[in-house]
Design goal:
The chain has about 300 residues and is α/β, with parallel strands linked by helices. It has helices spanning about 5-25, 45-60, 75-85, 105-110, 125-130, 140-150, 170-180, 200-205, 255, 270-290, and strands spanning about 1-5, 35-40, 60-70, 90-95, 160-165, 185-190, 205-210, 225-230, 235-240, 245-250, 260-265. It contains ten helices and eleven strands. The longest helix is centred in the N-terminal third of the chain and has 21 residues, at about 5-25.
């Protein structure tokens, strides 16, 4: 059983990006700039954003944080995004989700300039993904694909089951796995809350991507021997034995599922780290597209 270690893969991506930034600095060129917008004080979002800012600093990217109150008017958020869109010094814009309930998420994400949409949520990005046209891939699915590539996981001709159909993970990863590409060419089944025979589908799967947000949902009796299991779930569970007061649990019953797998991602230390690495890779790609002379 192989652990698909997000620490190792994200480190490899970061090291490559750091080397490229050093080349830019040596050539006296400006470095990529990622701007992050965070609204309110959601604990998980705060931790995630802090990691992005820290990693930008580590590899030499410039970063900026735009912090808005939970009560911010939608019009004020739109004004903020427009200013970032127009700023030629900014290559990537990331709007940390979730947004307050009074703000229309689809409307707002569609306003982020496609050329700076490093989270891949703009309708143009999603449309291009569906068509198989090069575009910014949503960060978590992109991170999963980077992990499959790093460990050279065979996907062609395999049956993949994706549990979850969100626009953030489920839909895009199902499209990526089915594309005619080196780490695609799967036959993909998408399961969701209305699927009546999820266990049967999972038992027929060579690859399972669990992305539904229910801790420990995927049990050992739902997984066949030698399956590849990708756990996208990251849920905070109250745990008084921890200094933080909580534990992080994935969608997979790791302890019992892992012995049956050929490969499996841990939580934490798996896909979550790859999501951040993918955002940084998208930011660098956006920089190259906006500064073609750097290529």
């Amino acid at each position: 059983m192989q652990i698909l270690d997000g620490k190792i893969v994200s480190r490899a991506v970061m090291d490559q990006l750091k080397a490229k930034v050093e080349e830019l600095i040596a050539a006296k060129k400006r470095v990529p700039h990622l701007s992050v917008i965070i609204i309110g004080r959601n604990g998980a979002s705060e931790t995630y954003v802090a990691s992005k800012i820290k990693n930008c600093e580590e590899i030499g990217f410039k970063s900026s944080l735009v912090r808005l109150e939970e009560t911010v008017a939608e019009s004020a958020l739109i004004e903020t995004i427009n200013k970032l869109n127009e700023d030629d010094a900014i290559d990537g814009i990331l709007l940390q989700l979730p947004l307050p309930k009074h703000i229309n998420e689809q409307k707002i994400t569609s306003l982020i300039d496609y050329s700076k949409d490093v989270d891949g949520f703009n309708p143009i990005s999603m449309g291009n993904l569906a068509l198989g046209v090069p575009s910014f891939i949503p960060a978590t699915p992109f991170g999963i694909m980077l992990m499959l590539e790093y460990y050279n996981i065979e996907t062609s001709g395999k049956h993949a089951v994706v549990i979850g159909r969100s626009n953030i993970v489920g839909r895009p990863i199902s499209m990526l796995l089915s594309q005619n590409s080196t780490y695609g060419n799967c036959t993909v089944t998408v399961c969701h809350s209305r699927t009546t025979n999820i266990k049967e589908h999972c038992l027929n799967a060579d690859i399972i991507v669990a992305a539904l947000g229910i801790p420990g949902f995927l049990k050992a009796d739902m997984v066949k021997e030698n399956a590849v299991v990708i756990d996208v779930g990251i849920t905070r569970i109250k745990d008084t034995s921890k200094k933080s007061g909580y534990s992080i649990k994935g969608d997979v019953d790791f302890e019992n599922v892992a012995p049956k797998c050929s490969c499996i991602t841990p939580v934490p230390g798996g896909v979550g780290l790859m999501t951040i690495a993918a955002v940084l890779q998208n930011t660098y790609n956006a920089y190259l597209q906006r500064n073609s002379s750097c290529q």
